[in-house]
Structure formats: C-alpha cells, structure tokens
Amino acid sequence: MTLGSGLRVYEHVAKLAVEDWNENNNVGLVVGATRPDEISDIRKITGDMPFLMPGVGAQGADVQALMEHGQGGPMIINSSRAVLYASNGSDFSIKAREVANATRIEVNSHKIEQP
Questions:
Q1: What is the pTM of this model?
Q2: Strand partners, 75
Q3: Which of 6, 9, 76, 80 is nearest to 38 (CA)?
Q4: Which residues contact 108 (CB under 8 A, 6 or more apart)?
Q5: Domains (ranges, CATH) in the chain?
C-alpha cells in the first residue's frame, strides 16, 4: 500500500523508527524475511538498526537472499515452526536440534564479512 506521501507503509514505519522513535538508540524492527527486496528498502532507510527476521523454515524465506539484502546491521534470524514441529514423537528434542543446527549452518554459509 502506498501512502499519499508516495512512501509504502513499511517505508513510512521505518522512517518513523529512525527519525522519531529511536531517541535512545534502542529500537529495532521486525522485518519479514520472505520479501528480500523490501528488506533492502528498509535497510537503506534504517542503516545499522537491528532487525528481527521471522520467516525462515516453514514460511520458506530464501536465506541467501535475506542475508544479502539485510547486510548493514545486526539480523536476528528466526525459525520457529520448523523447530517446533520437527517431530511430534519421543525424538522431538533430537529432531528439533537437527533443524535448528541446519538453519544455523545455512545462515552462516551466507554470511558476508564486513570490511
């Protein structure tokens, strides 16, 4: 959705977070990981503001794309359902750990080191 200002709603919220809400440098944003182009747009507005990024795992976010588009600040990559529903049997703890480790390995394989 585009506002009268020409900004999309998420761009407007990102600008508010940077310009009005972050007086004490303690604001972060929840940025869905399933829309990499929008991640880039938000990062351009927010600079190095931290992002919590749900959508990895069951929601199918492209980890490589989100890592590329989110560069420039801290990212907390979240995968809940894939871990929570790894198994409904007695092997749950083993399967949940496997899924969590696989996610960690995938995220780390796409890290781009900053100069």
A1: 0.86
A2: 51
A3: 9
A4: none
A5: 9-109 (3.20.20.70)
Report residue 52: phi and psi, to 5°: -95, 125
Q: Cα–chain-centroid distance for residue 61? A: 9
What tens-digit pLDDT sequence spans the chain (115 residues)?
889 999 999 999 999 999 999 999 999 999 999 999 999 999 999 999 999 999 998 888 999 999 999 999 999 999 999 999 999 999 999 999 999 999 999 999 998 776 5
Q: Which residue has the tokens 């496997």?
A: 98
42 with 31: CB under 8 angstroms? yes
